[in-house]
Write a structure and sequence with these properties.
Largest sheet: 4 strands, antiparallel
Order of helices and strands: EHEEHE
Helix content: 25-40%
Strand content: 25-35%
Number of strands: 4
C-alpha cells in the first residue's frame, strides 16, 4: 500500500522533557493539538537526549510546517526550549497503519 505520508525523526542531543514541552507548546497550535497536516506525533527520552517523531500527510505538509513554523522558532530560540538544532531523519513512508 503506497502512501504519500512523510515521517520525520528529530533527535535533540542533551534534550530534556522540559525543553521538549516548551518547544512543542511554541510550535503547536494548542495543547494536545497538532499542526495542520500532521497526523501523528510522539516524543520521549532517547539515549543521550530527546527524540521527536512526527508523521505528516505529505512531504509538502512537512516542508510547509518546517519552513513557516518550526525552523524559525528553533532558530530564534524558545524560552526554556531546546538549545540546539535537531539531527533530522526524513522518511517517505511506504505504509502507515492507524
Amino acid at each position: 500500500m503506497e502512501t504519500s505520508a512523510y515521517a520525520i525523526v528529530h533527535f535533540f542531543p542533551g534534550g530534556t522533557k522540559d525543553q521538549y514541552e516548551a518547544s512543542v507548546a511554541a510550535a503547536h497550535p494548542g495543547e494536545g493539538q497538532r499542526p495542520p497536516g500532521q497526523i501523528f506525533h510522539a516524543a520521549g527520552p532517547s539515549d543521550g537526549g530527546w527524540r521527536v517523531i512526527a508523521v505528516h500527510e505529505s512531504k509538502e505538509s512537512w516542508e510547509s510546517f518546517r519552513d513557516s513554523t518550526l525552523m524559525p522558532l528553533l532558530q530564534k530560540g524558545v524560552e526554556g526550549g531546546f538549545t540546539t538544532m535537531p539531527e533530522a531523519t526524513e522518511i517517505p513512508l511506504h505504509n502507515l497503519l492507524m
